[in-house]
Specification:
Layout lengths: L2 H25 L5 H4 L1 H21 L2 H20 L3 H30 L3 H9 L2 H20 L15 H24 L5 H73 L4 H19 L8 H16 L2 E7 L10 H17 L10 E10 L2 E8 L6 H4 L20 H11 L3 E6 L4 E8 L2 H7 L1
Parallel strand pairs: 1-2
Antiparallel strand pairs: 2-3, 3-5, 4-5
Helix pairs in contact: 1-3, 1-5, 1-7, 3-4, 3-9, 4-5, 4-8, 5-6, 5-7, 8-9, 9-10, 9-11, 11-12, 12-14
Length: 449
């Protein structure tokens, strides 16, 4: 490949990639996005240029246009995380546009030079200037259309989370092309040094894209977790509001009852009113509780669970000697852990109705720089033969249908391990306890010292 050919490919690849990008952002109605991401799309253009040089060096001329189009579809999908359907439509639009401009240019050239179409094509194909000139014309026309506010064809911006699919399709596509190019390499039709340099650059690009994609998906996963945590917190607040709404209605009923008793004014009315108020106050204190665990999300969760316990005649004992903000665990994971284990403790009473006083306790304390979270109940004992199986995926004592049950405690165990903790089950006829251990965060240790 001589220097003229190299420069021609460089200029053509810049114009082709810019035309595709301008077309894409025009149809998704984000005209300003190109200016805001200049570095990103400079890399897009550079990678397309390297690819274009590589296929010109290693593939037959007849395959270059088709292969370039497929690569642009995949590259657009990877860089913009858009669906293949949208990327394909954009590249096809650009291809049709290229064809129309080329035919128009050949027609004008033939008319002014009094040549046949076939002769004009032969002359133009033999000139390096033709390809560059035609791409310049195409670029400036699409640039004018890009600046116009009127849109002929438009789509919504499609972002999807499966960009990893586009990434692996890119890898498979490059491997197929590498295999096809080996014939020309073996036959000595390719400059080996140039070929190796281009392959190395594409390989580095593939690795970098993979790392960027992984980091992006990790960031999105964290955002999703935070969103789910806020959603859980909102649900808990809605539960508390429902409790308050119910209590408001109950207040009205209690006041109406006392008012009626006063109107009747029977001899023992005063004593009866005192007894009624005493019982009502005790019930309100039992059902309407708020807690300070050191974590706002857990406060809301336990407030809702406390109301559930009261409605089901279960005494919920809550005591946090050490605040939950001292442990090394993600808030959304902590909500999932405590919620699942508490639900499991409540459900234990479904298998033993003869218990006089149902008790569920949740304690938090620190010993030897380890945070212990104990959730226990006085329900039936967990049989020894299944204690080692209870955290396994799909295991359940609730139903034979494993599609519906058996994932709660497995997920709890996974979440605890992901946060560097451990969970231990101990069960006897008197009590079943889930004891969870967490590491204490460094800031808390420094404050204690």
């Amino acid at each position: 490949m001589d220097i003229y050919c190299f420069v021609r490919i460089f200029i053509i690849s810049i114009f082709e990639s810019l035309i595709v990008l301008l077309t894409f952002f025009k149809v998704i109605q984000k005209s300003s996005y190109l200016k805001e991401n200049k570095l990103k799309f400079s890399i897009f253009i550079f990678i397309y240029f390297i690819f274009k040089v590589w296929i010109n060096v290693s593939l037959s001329v007849g395959y270059i246009s088709i292969v370039s189009g497929i690569f642009l579809i995949i590259l657009l999908s990877v860089f913009e995380e858009t669906k293949f359907k949208i990327a394909t439509i954009v590249v096809l639009l650009a291809g049709v546009y290229f064809g129309v401009i080329v035919l128009a240019y050949i027609g004008i050239f033939s008319f002014f030079n009094h040549l046949s179409t076939t002769k004009s094509i032969e002359l133009l194909n033999s000139s390096y200037k033709f390809a560059i000139t035609i791409r310049c014309i195409e670029f400036f026309i699409i640039l004018i259309l890009y600046k116009l506010k009127k849109t002929i064809l438009k789509f919504q911006e499609f972002k999807y989370n499966d960009s990893i699919i586009a990434y692996w399709i890119l890898g498979v596509f490059l491997m197929i092309l590498f295999s096809l190019s080996l014939t020309n390499v073996v036959n000595g039709k390719v400059n080996i040094l140039l070929y190796q340099v281009l392959i190395f650059i594409l390989f580095i690009f593939f690795i970098i894209v993979g790392i960027i994609d992984y980091n992006k998906r990790s960031h999105l996963a964290k955002i999703r977790s935070k969103f789910e945590l806020k959603e859980e917190y909102t649900d808990n607040l809605e539960g508390i509001i429902d409790i308050i709404r119910k209590e408001k209605n109950d207040f009205y009923n209690h006041i109406s009852t006392i008012y009626t008793m006063c109107i009747l004014n029977r001899p023992d009315t005063l004593e009866r009113v005192k007894d009624y108020l005493k019982k009502t106050t005790n019930n309100l204190e039992a059902s309407y509780k708020f807690f300070n665990t050191g974590n706002d999300y857990i406060d809301g969760l336990i407030a809702v669970k406390s109301n559930f316990a009261f409605q089901n005649n279960i005494y919920l004992d809550v005591d946090f000697e050490a605040a939950l903000d001292s442990i090394m665990a993600e808030d959304n994971d902590l909500v999932g852990i405590i919620s699942n284990v508490l639900d499991n403790a409540f459900e234990a009473f479904n298998y033993e109705e003869s218990i006089d006083k149902k008790i569920v306790s949740i304690y938090g304390y620190i010993e030897n720089n380890i945070y212990y979270l104990s959730i226990a109940n006085n329900g039936p004992m967990v049989p020894k033969e299944i204690q080692n199986k209870i955290f396994k995926k799909g295991f359940s004592t609730k139903s034979k249908d494993k599609n519906d049950h058996g994932f709660g405690l497995y997920i709890v165990n996974q979440l605890i391990r992901e946060n560097g903790g451990e969970i231990v089950l101990s069960s006897s006829p008197e009590e079943t306890e889930f004891l969870i251990q967490f590491q204490i965060n460094i800031e808390y240790c420094q404050e204690v010292r």
